[in-house]
Design brief:
This protein has 107 residues and is mainly alpha-helical. It has 2 helices and 2 strands, in the order H-H-E-E. A two-stranded antiparallel sheet has the order 1-2. Strand 1 and strand 2 form a beta hairpin.
């Protein structure tokens, strides 16, 4: 039996489905994308913040002090970019120093 909670499984399944539907011929560029705002309803639902250091590590689903968008498997773009495209928030760029509840470690 899997130890992945149902909610996390559904979130990851949605990400996989979105990734499948994305056109592979066009790569999102963070410079072309508007910045994702923390007051957006989707951001609030995913507990997105532009500064991961403001989130209590104990309140995270996968507690770890070093979680940020920069080391999330769902964020695309070049290392060192301050804003990068994210598979969870299509058409928007997230802060590399940010964090949300769907954070997943890079493989």
């Amino acid at each position: 039996m899997s130890t992945i909670p149902r909610r996390k499984f559904i979130q990851l399944s949605a990400v996989a489905a979105a990734g499948y539907l994305v056109q592979t011929g066009r790569e999102a560029r963070a410079a072309d994308l508007p910045h994702f705002a923390a007051d957006d309803p989707m951001a609030q639902a995913m507990k997105y913040t532009e500064d991961a250091s403001t989130v209590d590590a104990a309140s995270r689903g996968n507690p770890a002090a070093d979680q940020s968008c920069a080391n999330c498997a769902l964020v695309q773009g070049a290392d060192g970019d301050a804003w990068r495209p994210c598979q969870i928030f299509p058409g928007k760029a997230v802060a590399a120093a940010g964090w949300c509840s769907v954070w997943a470690p890079k493989a």
